[in-house]
């Protein structure tokens, strides 16, 4: 028998304090990956622009019940994003002002420091850019300081 997790009763003060101090950061050399959207757009590579909205949505599940899912563009899994190795990925993440929590986007395909994909607060927008250096199938998922769990989305 498992124990139910009630997010309303969780003490997030410690997580908030860590976030306010700059978070737990994985530091990588600056030369690890180019992330400047302007520089990458002028690199002569094909640029793929993806707009994602991070939002909580009540999704139907078995038994006539619903599940409050953290989604990208209102769906689980999130949209499939297809690019060719060597292309530039330019992703814009929008969090509506009426969203109850921040969302982030951890892009495993980017091979960049996880700190680049920080949580985006309600009412804010963030843009991520990187070169798709490695061929393969990679996941991307919500991430952020106030998340109790992580819904997986496939890239």
UniProtKB/TrEMBL annotation:
Protein name: Copper-containing nitrite reductase
E.C. number: 1.7.2.1
Gene it is expressed from: nirK
Subunit structure: Homotrimer.
Record's keyword terms, sorted: Copper, Metal-binding, Oxidoreductase, Repeat
Enzyme class at the top of the EC tree: oxidoreductase
Domain Plastocyanin-like residues, every copy: 61-142
GO function terms (MF aspect): copper ion binding; nitrite reductase (NO-forming) activity
Cofactor: Cu(2+); Cu(+)
Pfam families documented for this protein: Cu-oxidase_3 (PF07732)
Catalytic function, reaction form: nitric oxide + Fe(III)-[cytochrome c] + H2O = Fe(II)-[cytochrome c] + nitrite + 2 H(+)
Organism of origin: uncultured Nitrososphaerota archaeon
The keyword Oxidoreductase belongs to this UniProt entry's keyword annotation: yes
Sites where the protein binds Cu cation: 103, 108, 141-142
Transmembrane segments: none
Highest rank taxon of the organism: Archaea
Repeat among keywords: yes
